[in-house]
Amino acid sequence: MLDPVPLLIDVGTDHAYLPIRAVSENICKKAVAIDNKKGPLEIAKDNIRKADLSDVIFPLLSEGLLNVHIPNIEISDDSIRSSEVAEAPCNDAMCISKGKAFITPGTDYAITIAGMGGENIMSILSTSPEIAHHASKIILEPQKNIDKVKLFFTENSYEILEERNVFSDGKYYTIFAVRYKIC
């Protein structure tokens, strides 16, 4: 469901398996592997290092997308100062500076959020709309509250591009590809 894109942002990366595979298979050139816990992020860093992809996959400690920004768009987080953006020499899709990821304006990127509850997914999209709304595609795999997630899409102007049910290890998973509808 993930089309080739210059940048992938994987939220809740855990072991960084998804960004490692996406970069290795040339689905993306660079990736940000986000987790909100230090332990899983250390595992992700180790896996990225073992895959010899430390120069193109960047682990980031963040609550959802809160530490991801696009300079020159309206940023709701007052803690981002223009000096931080200026110190982040962004080229070739994105850069990391002072624990924040800065996406080069105009970069095409996708977001993946998988393996967590629907309430968490909705919260992540709601607290960082400036990042979610600019993604070319968002791939989501909620573990529960699927009906609430679908209602959230409707109420928040996301269009469902594709919906798949996948059977794996004795369980069905629902996967969505969505994007924000520009009115």
Question: Please, what is the average pLDDT?
Answer: 89
* Spatial order of strands in the largest sheet: 3-2-1-7-8-10-9
Main beta sheet: strand number and arrangement? 7 strands, mixed
Query: How many strands?
Result: 10
* Span of the ends, CA to CA: 24 Å
Query: Hey, roughly how much beta strand do the residues contain?
Result: 35-45%
Annotation field: number of helices: 6
3D architecture notes:
With 183 residues, this protein is α/β, with parallel strands linked by helices. 27% of the residues lie in helices and 36% in strands. It contains six helices and ten strands; from the N terminus they run E-H-E-H-E-E-H-E-E-E-H-H-E-H-E-E. The strands form two sheets. A seven-stranded mixed beta sheet has the order 3-2-1-7-8-10-9, with helices on both faces. It has a three-stranded mixed beta sheet with strand order 4-6-5, with no helix packed on it. Helix 4 runs parallel beside helix 6. The chain is globular.
Question: What features would you highlight for this structure?
Answer:
183 residues; alpha/beta; 7-stranded mixed β-sheet; 3-stranded mixed β-sheet; 6 helices
Summarize it.
By secondary structure, the chain is an alpha/beta fold.
What is the topological layout?
Layout: E1 5-11, H1 17-24, E2 28-35, H2 38-50, E3 57-61, E4 68-69, H3 82-86, E5 94-97, E6 100-103, E7 109-116, H4 118-127, H5 129-132, E8 137-142, H6 146-155, E9 158-168, E10 171-180
Parallel strand pairs: 1-2, 1-7, 2-3, 4-6, 7-8
Antiparallel strand pairs: 5-6, 8-10, 9-10
Helix pairs in contact: 4-6
